[in-house]
Every structure is written in structure tokens, then in C-alpha cells.
Design a protein that fits this description.
The complex is a heterodimer of chains A (about 110) and B (about 110). By secondary structure, chain A is mostly beta strands. Chain A has no helices and 12 strands. Chain A has strands at about 5, 10-15, 20, 25, 30-40, 45-50, 55-60, 60-65, 75, 85-95, 100, 105-110. In chain A, the strands form 3 sheets. In chain A, strands 2, 5, 6, 10, 11 and 12 form a 6-stranded mixed beta sheet that branches. A 4-stranded antiparallel beta sheet of chain A has the order 3-9-8-7, with no helix packed on it. A two-stranded antiparallel ribbon of chain A has the order 1-4. Chain A is globular.
């Protein structure tokens, strides 16, 4: 079945460090891939997305590239800030279906 | 501004009581969803609806019920049959039949059973 696996957290980094959060997926069709961010006590916000292979999604300095050959969609940021501290969720949606599949979330702590 | 509203933000319930969580959207989306999130956990799908007057069970529907009488509203009832209802509940919506479009989330309702 369709599923998403992302690296377990928490991930703790110093400000200005490089961030990678790994995400791999299994899908029967041609999925679209998403990264969401959740701040404490709030709902999820879309961070970026990619709808086909080799697409790169980007927003607020975050990037992720849809790699079909490795079934991956890793999230990266070159220089994290304290304000990036949050939980990050990788998700997929398969064409012609209306269900989303979410990873378990990765908590990021950025220290000043 | 278009968006999704959930009310109340915090809800307390005594054991054995049913409680209804509200979800309203003005995005004109056909599909709506309810998720449950436990501390430090991911999202688990409770119910979803692709169109008015139609809904499907998700992965953890036992002890929950929903209705979809209007396009903009998708209330969730947590019944006394739900053994461990204390959790954070998230409502979401999206355009139907397009995998490239994201889900939009409400701010969530935190339910605590006393």
C-alpha cells in the first residue's frame, strides 16, 4: 500500500547549521509529494510540494526534490534559524484518490 | 480571507458523554477530512468526505461519527464508545480529484476527557 517513512527525531541543530530531514515513500501510482510544518498547538501548514519526478519544491529557504529513482523527497535548508523549530511532516497523495498519507513527523529543535 | 475554522479550541468532556467538534470551511472545497493526533505522533485519518451527503471511514473510525449535510461543514462526534478520546483533532479540506493540490488544515481542537 501507499506509505511515507521519515526519519525519527528529534533533530537538534545550532542556528545556521545545515538541515536534512529524510523522507521516502511507497506508492502504487504517480504521487504528489508534500512537506508540511506544524508549530506547537497549531494545525499543519503547507511548506512546499512537488507534483512530478525531478520537480523541486521550495519555500522560505527550504527545498526538496522529487526523486523517483530513489523514491525520496528529502527536506533541506542551508542555514536554519531558531524560528524553524517545529515538527515537519512528509506526505503523499496519489492521483485519482483523495486520501493523504503522512509520515510520523520529525521534530526540529534549533538552538541559538 | 478563505480558510478553515474549528471550534472550540479546547474542549473538556466527562467520561460517557458524547461531544461534537465543529469544522467549517469557506474555500469551496468538496473534500473534507478529520484526523487525530496524539502527543509526539503523526496524523491518523478518522473519516473523510468527498462530496455532500457522502463520507467514508478512515483508519480509526470506531467510536466516531460524522455528517456532511452542507458543503462547508463537516462536524465530528466523539461518542462514549471511543475508549481513549483525549487527543488533538485536526480538520482539513482540499479540491477533489486532484492529487497535486494540497490539503488545508484548521487550527485544531484539543479534547480532554476528565
Amino acid at each position: 500500500g501507499d506509505s511515507v517513512t521519515q526519519m525519527e527525531g528529534p533533530v537538534t541543530l545550532s542556528e545556521e547549521a545545515f538541515l536534512t530531514i529524510n523522507c521516502t515513500y511507497t506508492a502504487t501510482g504517480y504521487p504528489s509529494l508534500f512537506w508540511y510544518v506544524q508549530y506547537p498547538g497549531e494545525g499543519l501548514q503547507l511548506l512546499l510540494k512537488a507534483t512530478k519526478a525531478d520537480d523541486k519544491g521550495s519555500n522560505k529557504g527550504f527545498e526538496a526534490t522529487y526523486r523517483k529513482e530513489t523514491t525520496s523527497f528529502h527536506l533541506e535548508k542551508g542555514s536554519v534559524q531558531v524560528s524553524d523549530s517545529a515538527v515537519y511532516f512528509c506526505a503523499l497523495s496519489v492521483s485519482n484518490f483523495n486520501k493523504f498519507y503522512f509520515g510520523s513527523g520529525t521534530k526540529l529543535n534549533v538552538k541559538p | 480571507d478563505g480558510g478553515i475554522t474549528q471550534s472550540p479550541k479546547y474542549l473538556f468532556r466527562k467520561e460517557g458523554q458524547n461531544v461534537t467538534l465543529s469544522c467549517e470551511q469557506n474555500l469551496n472545497h468538496d473534500a473534507m477530512y478529520w484526523y487525530r493526533q496524539d502527543p509526539g505522533q503523526g496524523l491518523r485519518l478518522i473519516y473523510y468526505s468527498q462530496i455532500v451527503n457522502d463520507f467514508q471511514k478512515g483508519d480509526i473510525a470506531e467510536g466516531y461519527s460524522v455528517s456532511r449535510e452542507k458543503k462547508e461543514s463537516f462536524p465530528l462526534t466523539v461518542t462514549s464508545a471511543q475508549k481513549n478520546p483525549t487527543a488533538f483533532y485536526l480538520c482539513a479540506s482540499r479540491e477533489r480529484d486532484s492529487s497535486g493540490l494540497e490539503q488545508f488544515f484548521g487550527p485544531g481542537t484539543r479534547l480532554t476527557v476528565l
